[in-house]
Amino acid sequence: MAARRSGKIRKYRKPLNINLGMIIFGCVSVYIGICVFMYFTSSHIIGYEVKAGSLSVNNVYKGIAIRKEEVVNSADSGYINYYTREGGRVAVGDLVYTVDETGRLSEMVGTGDPDENSLSDADLNELKSEILAFISSFTPQNFREVYDFKYNVEGTVMKLANYSILENIDVLNNSSEAGLVNFCRAAKTGIVIYSTDGYESLTADQVQESDFDQTTYKKTPLISNELVNRGDPAYKLSLSENWSIVIPVTAERAAELLEEEYVKVKFLKNQDISWGQVLIHENSDGVYAELAFNNSMITFCTDRYIDIELMAKDETGLKIPNSAIVEKEFFLVPVEYITKGGSNGVNGVMREFITEEGEISKEFVETPIYNEEDGEYYLDDTVLRIGDYLLKPDSEDKYAVSKRGKLIGVYNINKGYADFKQIQILSDNEEYSIVKSGTTYGLSVYDYIALDASSVKENDFTSN
Questions:
Q1: What is the per-residue pLDDT across 58-113, written as a single tens digit (0 to 9) for each?
Q2: What is the DSSP letter of 118?
Q3: Of 100, 254, 303, 339, which sits 20 to 30 A from 416 (CA to CA)?
Q4: Structural Rg of the chain based on CA atoms
Q5: What tens digit of pLDDT does each residue of 307-360 get?
Q6: Distance CA 181, CA 179 (A)
Q7: How far apart are CA 194 and CA 159, in angstroms?
Q8: Among residues 263, 257, 290, which one has the least CA distance to residue 276?
């Protein structure tokens, strides 16, 4: 008994119990860790579904009107009164304005019966048209146009009222102050305008970017019953129905417009549509398109800046983002060297090679075709090498692979890997391109392509 009590006491070790749940949990944890690691260390191909559509091109421009204009200066000093409506056509010898050297004429009109100076229905309709035109084109950003409108309305009312003055001129000229009212008649035929802006002699080849800055533009209205000096501008004549609008464009847009030669133009002021002949000017600070017209000048004779929309034909096709477009090199091989082979009868070439024993032999190499042009096929440069000899079927002729060519295309990922497809771009803007549909080696609607071509290599597998 004593011997037993003197024995050493050892600590009991609990046996390790491994159950099936712990094994499964460990395996799942390792798998998830590997997947997370691969996700963050591998490149991802984001797909984009190809759809039919057209580009949204901004065809609205603010242009400068170029007309054949002539400013007529006053030959006398005094109070000027106009008798021709602005925008009206005058012939040689028609009365345009008078100059009252004493001011007696306006005094006589001011003391007359107010009913005699009332406006007719036709006069009121003219005023209404002018007001409606201003309302339709007004924008808060160009508030200064309100002042121009104010002066135009005042001038129009004054000119309309001045018709009653003509009845008083004979009375004044028969009085002791005869000869003090000078009649000024048109020396040329044209459209009368009662304002000046310093752009009367501007031509299309002189237009610069600064001319489009409306914050520095100053239009001086010529108002009835104002005091003028000899040599001051009295009125302006627009001498020809032929006129033009100049707009700033890019070199690419200029080439497109020049190719069309004539373009349909919508005037945003009144929604009228006309055809303009396209002329291109490369001025000192940029490229400008001149749209020449032979009608509608009288409608816009008082406007220097005109908002227009070019009714250009939109290209339709397959719409793809520009980020998906890539340029790739290929080998060019004559079409007669292409044959079919393999178990599935796919396209390829017969390539000559030397065996380990030093003997010359041949093998079939599958080579997908990416395009055909001028009797040559574009073949993948990853399966062939420069200097490879290709054998012509049923012939002893050989072709040494060396010639290269480039194609514009995208990476199609329909099959789960990146496959290059050639495209033909019809039109483009900063974000998207319209490519031709139905091509032999190109895309179709609902194809999936790599959104970012720079992150993709040929035959890369998609991760989604």
A1: 788 999 999 999 999 998 898 888 888 888 889 999 888 888 887 766 665 555 55
A2: P
A3: 339
A4: 41
A5: 999 887 667 788 999 998 999 999 999 999 988 887 778 888 888 888 878 788
A6: 6
A7: 10
A8: 263
Which are the contacts of 32, defined by CB distance < 8 A and separation ≥ 6? none
Two tokens, residue 288: 């400008």
Which two structure tokens, joined as six digits, stand for 105?
């004429």
Cα dihedral sign, 231-237-243-245: positive
Cβ pair 338, 391 in contact under 8 A: no
Burial of residue 387 (number of CB atoms within 10 Å: 0-12, 13-18, 19+): exposed
Size of the chain in residues: 464
Q: At what angle do helices 121-137 and 145-161 cross, to 10 degrees?
A: 170
For 179: left if phi > 0, alpha if psi spans -120 to 50, otherwise beta; the answer is left
The residue to which tokens 């004493």 are assigned: 102
* 266-276 CB burial, b ≥16 within 10 A, e <16: bbeeeeeeeeb
Residue indicated by tokens 């080849």: 205
Signed CA dihedral, 379, 383, 384, 389: sign only: negative
Assign 163 to helix, strand or coil. Answer: helix
**Rounded distance between C-alpha atoms, residue 444 and residue 317, angstroms:** 10
Cα atoms in the Cβ-side hemisphere of radius 13 Å centred on 1: 0
Name 290's bridge partners.
246, 279
CA 74 to chain centre: 45
φ, ψ of residue 443 to 5 degrees: the values are -100, 165
- C-alpha 133/C-alpha 131 separation (Å) is 5
The two three-digit tokens of residue 361, written as one number: 């032999």
Q: Which residue has the tokens 């919508």?
A: 266
Neighbour count for residue 363 (Cβ, 10 Å): 12
92's tokens:
């040689």
Cut 0.85: pTM above it: no
Tell me the residue ranges of DSSP E strands in 20-165.
47-49, 51-54, 60-66, 69-73, 78-82, 89-90, 95-100
Is beta strand 305-310 parallel, antiparallel or unpaired with respect to 262-267? antiparallel
